[in-house]
Amino acid sequence: MRKLDDILLWNLMAAVIVLGHARPNMKLHSQSNNGLKSDCVGNLMRLSLDKALAVGSQLEVDAINGTQHIVLTPSLAAQCGYSMESDPWGNTRIFTSLLGCYVDNKEDATFNVGLRLRMYSQSPAEVVSHDVTQTCSYTRWASKEILCDRNYMEVSNYMTTPDAQAKGQAPDDSKMNSIPGDTDTAHGIWKMTFYTPEPVAMVLREAEQAGYGAMTTANRLVMRSPYNTAETYSEDVAGVPMEVFRVTTYYKSPHGLTVVNLAAACPTGGVLFTDDVISWHVPRRVTPVIDGSFKIVEMHMGINGQRLDKSQMAARGYTLSATDFHIVIEMPVGSADGYYKSHAPDYQYHITYTVEPMLEVLWRADNGQDTRYKVLFPITTPLMPRPPQVSDFTSAEDRLFNVDLGTFLHDVELKNITFSTEILTVKECNAKGFTIKEHSFPNGTKSYSLKVPFDADVVLKHNPEPLVTVYVLPLVFGFIILPEETPFAHPVVLEASVQDVVLPTVTGTCDQNLFYISVKYGSQGSNFQTMVGTRQLTPELAQVYNFQENGTHCSLVVPYTAKDAAFELITSDSVRARLDLLLWEPNNNWVLGDLYLACNFPLTTTECYPNGTMTALAVKVESVPNLNPSWLTLRDASCKPVFSNDRFARFTFSLDSCGTTRTFFDHYMLYENEIGLHFDDYKGAAYTSPPEPEYRQTVSCYYEVNKTETVSFGYEQRSRDPTAEIGLGQLMSQMRLAQDSSYELFYQPEDYPVVSYLRQTLYFEVELMQSTDPHLELILENCWATPHEDRTSLPSWDIIVDNCANHDDGYMTAFHPVVADTRVAIPSHFKRFSIKMFTFTKDQEVLKDEIYVHCDAVICDTNNQADSACSGQCVRPTSLNNSRFPGMGVKRDQRSADSTHQKISSGPILLLNSVKPVNKQ
Questions:
Q1: Does position 119 have pLDDT exceeding 50, yes or no?
Q2: Mean pLDDT lowest for which of 24-33, 725-734, 789-798?
Q3: Bridge partners of residue 590, in order along the sequence
Q4: Burial class (CB in 10 A: 0-12, 13-18, 19+), 525
Q5: Dihedral (C-alpha) 879, 884, 890, 891: value to the nearest 10 degrees?
Q6: Mind listing the pLDDT tens digit for each residue in 292-336?
Q7: What 8-state DSSP symbol labels residue 522?
Q8: How many helices, marked H, and strands, marked E, lie in the chain?
Q9: Which distant-in-sequence residues (6+ apart) come within 8 Å of 321 by Cβ?
Q10: What is the torsional sign of CA 819, 823, 829, 835?
Q11: Is 826 exposed, middle or buried (0-12, 13-18, 19+ CB in 10 A)?
């Protein structure tokens, strides 16, 4: 049988040769040991290598065996008692068992360990080496020692010989932990039987080729096995999974054959996790190792192979305790002895925490033999999701997106950001004015912040409301995890709503023939459509209206006779035309701006000639959109226009024809006719209903001695008809002005002053308020009109006198019946009447173009007929002499105590176009 040293040396030399061919032309340099630290931790030598030495390099470890350097491959390291642990950043710890191969062992008391570290840089191609030697003293060997390291299980047993016992000393052995079986002598380990748990016998050479280590020292027999070999097996001990290595060794000595039973059992689980605590459970009785009764003599906890005392444990928050079945170590997640690491499964950010606790227990059996049990057990928590938190510090006032994303571990690096239009690196973002900063925190974490102006080209915009802009910044932060450069991403969408839209403004002016329109663009430029009248401003129409634009403004020039202008009102010498302009956002149907510009333009509509002829021009106004001017006639329907188009009709006639009337006054004669629409003449399929409102235009000529004057009364559509507020009176009654004879719609207080026209019918309603008594009746006793709000002011005109209409009035007041409906519950509580609009004149001059209507109302009890005033509305009509001064009218009857007198008045009613009319005097 060959010696183990020869076999190992052959394997290692082959590795060195292969390595030499793989890395040609490399220089070997010796370096100082800065960044290296070696120490002794019980039955182990520990070598720590700082990441600063290993960064960017590939590390290989050689065992120094005298003048030889043996490369420690992973399989050889497990077979010979070496282990290495590195964190992701290159911080490395190498553990060497003092009973390992290539350790200079002096009587199992002094141990010299030598290692060479070789670091291969990728560029330039050269090797940097560090030689480390460490001498450790260790004499606290127990009868049986079990060591569980990360890659192997080791068990050693104390052995004595009869000679040594007789002489009181152990036999001399100066070899380097060599196994006697590799010599030609008949002494040493002969064979061994492994239990899987079924027995498997091997001679020494077969065991070594299978990866097991077997050797003797001055006083101990050592067996070593990697994990998960064919001859190890798993066993559940007190609920903890363990890897078991059991072997019987046959050892030849000059004194005979010695049989030694060895066993090691190392935990592979038993760890429980919460969000805050790691709990590691080890069986109190490891049955494959301990037989019979025992007691725990010592129990220690350590970190990275180094024992901790109670004060150190307390300072770190560690606890070590024993239950009936387990020894329990508890450690807080995040303690300083471990490290966090970032991960990105499925491109989602997670972290883990890794720590390497150590447990050391000394069991003492009833026969006095001690067993020392030492476990180095690296623990890594399950993946813990840590989705980055978005802190949005966007400032609408500063018009700046400001976002903070984190936190991340120190091994995360921001690589790029994907915007809506492009992907930019961090450097490119900063060059473009997007500020990116990394913020580090005392606990070792960090975050990233990004600032982007609202006006940047990567920001999306839309307008949910006309004045509001919503700015949207979609982002995808691209990260990598070092040193593996594992990518992951995190999307963020920032949004800010700002009322920052400046709408376009429209202004306009007029001269004698044209509308001049100017539009100043708002913050969104010319992003709108323009409606002129009812038509959209097309390029062809813009050319007609002399459209001009300079980037900030646009303008139009529109004749008042254009199709898109509307005629509102005509007088004897002018027409009031209006141009409607609408700025329209078509996607959302928003009105961004509008202008309704109305101006008076010179236009002669009536001309009177000395030869007794009159020329009148009728204009189609917007209140009668269905009117065809060719349908208009004078009073005599046979008198049709001499000219007409879609907007005008012109009449020429003599003053003694076409139904013209003549009225004589003291100093002049008045000739009047009326341009109107006669429906009877136009009934049929082509015209089945009259346009609304009815069209009527009065034209007049005044003839004085040797002088001719013209006058015309303008027509106004009903949207501008006179309006009135609720009559002012006592709490119990009110007067209102209706919009028409249906008495369904009434003018409101905000409509004052209302506008009326000469001889236009005004419909009044007086209502008894706050009463549901059907036996009460409202009687209008007296009503009169004044040009002033004061009901006692002069002059005045009687409308109703002693319950009846004034029969001296050429345009008599009319009473209208009241019937019950949804609004009128008790008809006797209402009175309705109508009058023709008039004005007060003196010496042919209009005193004032306003009138106020006042009434004295009587509230009567219908069960009592004694009061003459309560006998009903107008039961005794009488011819009355009216006057515009008080005292010249009729005498009012006195009222009894069974009636209640109410004083009510209307608001002001304004007369429009009162030029030389015949009125009340």
A1: yes
A2: 24-33
A3: 585
A4: exposed
A5: 160
A6: 889 999 999 999 999 999 999 999 999 999 999 999 999 999 999
A7: B
A8: 8, 71
A9: 327, 328, 330
A10: negative
A11: middle
CB 760 within 8 A of CB 836: yes
| Residue 535, φ and ψ in degrees, nearest 5 | -115, 145
User: Which of the pair, 183 or 543, is modelled with greater confidence?
Assistant: 543
The backbone region for 664, taken as left when phi is positive above 0, alpha when psi lies in -120 to 50, beta otherwise, is: beta
Amino acid (one-letter) located at 631:
W
DSSP states of 662-723 as a string? Answer: EEE-SSEEEEEEEEE--GGGG-BTTB-S--SSPPEEEEEEEEETTEEEEEEPPP--GGGS--
Q: Read off the tokens for 43.
A: 């039955």
Q: Percent of the chain beyond pLDDT 70? A: 83
Does residue 15 sit in helix, strand or coil?
helix
Q: Cα separations (Å) of 148 from 123, 151, 226?
A: 38, 8, 10
The pLDDT, as a whole number, for residue 680 is 52
The pLDDT score that the predictor gives to residue 893 is 38
Structure tokens at 501: 């839209």
Report d(CA 753, CA 909) in Å as an integer. Answer: 6
Range 859-870 burial, b when 16+ CB lie within 10 A, else e: bbbeeeeebebb
The model's confidence at residue 124, banded by pLDDT at 50, 70 and 90, is: low
Contacts of 328 by beta carbon, 8 Å cutoff, 6+ apart: 279, 280, 281, 282, 319, 320, 321, 322
The residues pairing with 702 across neighbouring beta strands, listed in sequence order, are 670, 709
The strand pairing partners of 304, in sequence order, are none
The neighbour count for residue 386, using CB atoms within 10 Å, is 18
Q: What are the Cα distances from residue 691, in Å, to 501, 678, 711?
A: 43, 11, 26
Please report, for residues 205, 341, 449, 482, the alpha-carbon distance to residue 416 in angstroms, rounded to integers and kept in the order given.
58, 21, 13, 15
Are 568 and 581 in contact by the 8 Å Cβ rule? The answer is no
Q: Where are the beta strands (DSSP E) in 409-537?
A: 412-418, 423-425, 435-440, 446-453, 460-465, 468-481, 486-498, 505-510, 514-520, 529-532, 535-536
Write a three-state SS string for 332-391.
Answer: ECCCCCCEEEEECHHHCCEEEEEECEEEEEEEEECCCCEEEEEEECCEECCCEECCCEEE
- At 106, is the pLDDT very low, low, confident or very high (cuts 50, 70, 90)? very high
* Amino acid, res. 90: G
Q: What pLDDT digit, counting tens, does each position of 57-100 carry?
A: 688 899 998 889 999 999 999 999 999 998 888 889 999 999 99
Residue 756 to residue 713: CA distance in whole angstroms = 12
- Which tens digits make up the pLDDT trace of 419-460? 999 999 999 999 999 999 999 999 999 999 999 999 999 999
Integer CA distances (angstroms), 616 to 480, 609, 649, 654, in order: 90, 12, 8, 11
* pLDDT of 282 strictly over 60: yes
How is residue 531 written in tokens?
A: 């409606």
Residue with the two structure tokens 């003797």: 216
Token output for 328: 């329990």
